[in-house]
Amino acid sequence: MVAIAIAIATFLIVFLIGPILTVIHTAFSDGSGGFTLAHFSAFSEISLMRESFANSLFVAGMTVLFATLIAVPLAYLTMRFQFRGAVLIQTLGVLPLIMPAFVGAAAMQLIFGRSGAVNLILNENFGFGLPIMEGLNGVIFVETLHYFPFILLNLSASLAAIDSSMEEAGQNLGASGWRLFRKVVFPLALPGYIAGASLVFIKVFDDLGTPLVLNVTNMLAPQAYLRVTSIGIEDPIGYVICVILVIFSIGAMGGAWWFVKRRDYALVSRGGAQAPKRQLTSWQTTLAYGWIIGVLMLVLSPHIGILLMSFFKVWSFSILPEQFTLAHYATVFSDSKQMIWNTLLYCGLAAVIDVLIGAAIAYIVLRTSIPGRQLLDHLVTVALAMPGLVLGIGYLRAFRGIELPFGAGALTASWFIFVIAYSVRRLPYALRSCMAALTQVHPALEEAAENLGAGRWQTIRRIVIPLMMGGILAGFVTSFITAAAEISETILLTSRESLAPMSYGIYLYFQSIAGRGPGAALSVIAITLVALGTYITHRIAATATPHQSIGANR
Amino acid sequence: MSYFTLCRHLIAATITALFAGATLADTISVVTSFPKELTAAYKKAYEAKYPQDKLEILNKNTAAGIAYVREQPAGSRPEVFWASAPDAFEVLSSQKLLVKIGPGSPSIPAKIGNYPVNDPEGFYRGQALAGYGLMWNTRYMDANKLPAPKEWADLVKPVYFGHLAISSPSRSGTTHLTVETILQGEGWTKGWAQVLAIGGNSAAITERSFGVPDGVSSGQFGIGLVIDFFGLAAKNSGMPVEFIYPSVTSIVPANIALIDGAKSSEAGKRFIDFTLSEEGQTLLLQKEISRLPVLPSIYAKAPAGYPNPFGGNIQAKVNFNANLSESRYYVVVSLFDQMITFRHKELAAAMKAIHDAERRLSGKASAQLDEARKLVLSPIVDEKQISDKKLLELFKAKKTDAEASKTKVKVEEEWASRAKANYARAIELASAAK
Known about the structure:
Chain A is mainly α and 554 residues long. Chain A has 23 helices and two strands. Helix content of chain B is 49%, strand content 15%.
């Protein structure tokens, strides 16, 4: 066990902490190894950088605000009221996440852009347009629709865990409606909200693909990317930006943690009866359905846009596209099969690594007494706060010139780098699932096995892993899906087209006029694959759960 | 236990895949800024003809491509560099990153206009020809009742305010060529006045040169400044767009070169020869590629109306001076970014104020308006300063030179704040003009 713990720690130090430290070191190094703050003062002297910084903060903040406005009513409605649209909301929660934000951005240009469908209709009928997709507005709009599920999912989970007696007490004391929500429900659900909101903030703050596709360059992540790719890996300003991204990410996570810790949110009775679902009055129902259908349409618009783009030849200055064709799919299948395979390979391997390490860490933390075992958990949490861009730049810098054995070429130019990068960044998701799964396995079961003469390994193999299977699978899928949609690292690490995964392929296709259709077709394939994967695991997880409870009863 | 069998299979598969990657075939890595349709067509044709070789495409924009080649250690560099901007090749050859491959086939003319098709020193060859021009969306123009433009100079008119799009030279080699062509064709001061006015009239300064044709063909923008094949390819693939060459254009070759310090130089050379062969040149005529071959005989196969730079249906008035362009490359790029890209909002506001004042005064002379125009439309670096060797050297200095990069940042910052102040003052003047 100790050997495994050390191996995992080494993996995390080499592929997570090392590259980050390299980035930080470069930002503070004066070229001859000494410490300097010159790069930071240079950064603060460039007005473009100050502006980018302010813009990134503004966009991330506004996105959190709008995502809150969308997600909070949705979560509250579904968790507290009798409502037939629950399936709809669940779909809402996953749909945006299975498509990279920048793909949605391309489609949303055609729907909400200057000459998109919506503005054409508005202009024709009312003589005005809405600048939804202009500059920073566009980034905020696209990111809001993409990331609000983080708040929705976390807040829903939090709401589900509140003991109904609290709300009943509130109601008995005469609170209802808005007052009940503001004074009782929301404060109790705050930990979930804060967790979701801080995640949204971090994701938006370091997103690269969306601003690039929308031609917004005066934000921090695009500036770091432009600096490092066009000026070179030596440019110190790029590293300064990385350090700032890291500080803000860790700050947002730490802030959220502190905020939740500061007050006591623990309830005396937990996991008790779910709050009874209340009835909506008829006008409330209308309002609620209206809100949900409106949001659903917004959320679906990029998916519909992409689907239309993939089947039509021309979509230019018109409300709907013209000239139906299947040629785009033919192009993708003849030119880009490799990319589909690459995505399956990289993300599959990365997810396997994630659940292996995740399950091992969960076991070490929860079941052994190795000193410092909590450290592994904390190390993994660092990955959650680490922007993909920073890790990508860190890899390029730290592993520069490292050759693989057997003449396989440089590490940074091989496909291993994708597997490693994806597995490191998605490890926290897999770890959470594995931890949750193992917490639910009662140690008595393992003790029973050991009493019957089973060794430790046998116990793990025959008892622990089968009982954890549901959680392991959930972890696998979360890692896989999120890795498949990852673009910041991917753009940086792709050195040759034959190594590129689908997300890069989509990005590349969207860079030429005749490529728009095939790019959309590849997106549709990617979304279908991911959606299929999600569905299958839901099924597997559903069949794995009863098995687990039988085991627990035995 | 099936779970562990699965793991064992996965590990075995990984190891097999590792060794499969290290086969013996020659792999030719091509760094290129060209779109996927073009690279895919060449990959397919070349690999069909030379099955023992494998073509690897490394798609990067020109600036990123140069940085990439420079950062690879000798011995593991890519084989071929293939891009539009001739200055990129000048940069590469001046840093001794290219192998001399000689002038190539005698059936390819030595010059197009005054411009040599191949590098006179033999480091790179012209592979296709490209001119710069204007592309517009016909539906957008009809809907907004805009007249079709003919020349760069047309684009400064108030009627086009908010309807143009241009990319930034720092991000796109082809845009740099367009800007440099205007600067050389009109002269430094007048050229910048035009470039600044175009920038001010633009709805967006896009991140990549491709953002412009993309936005025009989807109808986000009315008119874009593009390299010809973007416009022609969009038109030929059925988009409602038109493309013209203005008279201040230059026809320059898009080039291909063999990189020094690559693994399979021999195979790299084979690919270069293929792109210049009759077969390779014919690929350029494909609808979604639509580029101008350097081999004149190919034009006989072209569809009617295909532009032919050898037949005289494109008038190129400017004789592009690549040395001049290369010597001031970094300064021009940085100036554009500081005055236009990063200050676009302010510049557009100033331009609008000037257009409004012109309309209000309806042709009446006004000192304030003239002053506003001068503030907005003069380059921060004047004609005398741009020939200053010290400034040019400062911008060429190596990035690791901390002192130089600090001075450079200071100079750029000074430009930026001056530009910003000028635009703000111009808005005041123009709105008060009577």
